[in-house]
């Protein structure tokens, strides 16, 4: 769990493949984290369990961690734009899933980034939906933020 965001998952691992072929069990998992140390710790735990079971292990990382920077100037600007446009403080959330921001941040160390967007239900699954009203709010916020950053 994320200490700075009570009730928010920071690191998780889920089984993605479980199959047997010719008496051989193959398990696949996807481990995600917003924290590099957390990602390493879960990976080490999985490796230790696999070794105890006499299993072979192959590690492939799909997304690097993307740790939130609560002191970011960009985040401060986005918060100010949100408060001006909507008259209230935004709810800040972190996500531990793979995001493009993590890939970009790995290639451009030190770049300031935030992830904003409309409300999506059931992402990457059948029945995925987006709230039309939240798309309109997102565009209003994005316009205000870009206006602030360009002046």
The CATH architecture name of the domain at 73-150 reads Orthogonal Bundle
Per CATH, the class of the domain at 73-150 reads Mainly Alpha
Could you spell the SSE succession in H and E letters?
EEHHHEEH
Spans of at least 5 consecutive residues whose pLDDT stays below 50 are none
Largest sheet geometry: 2 strands, antiparallel
Class of secondary structure makeup: alpha+beta
Number of strands: 4
- Proportion of residues in helical segments: 25-40%
Number of contiguous helices: 4
Average residue pLDDT: 90
Tell me the CATH topology of the domain at 73-150: DNA polymerase, domain 1
Structure description:
With 151 residues, the protein is α+β, with helices and mostly antiparallel strands. It has a domain at 73-150: Orthogonal Bundle (DNA polymerase, domain 1). 38% of the residues lie in helices and 17% in strands. A two-stranded antiparallel sheet has the order 1-2. A two-stranded antiparallel sheet has the order 3-4. The chain is elongated.
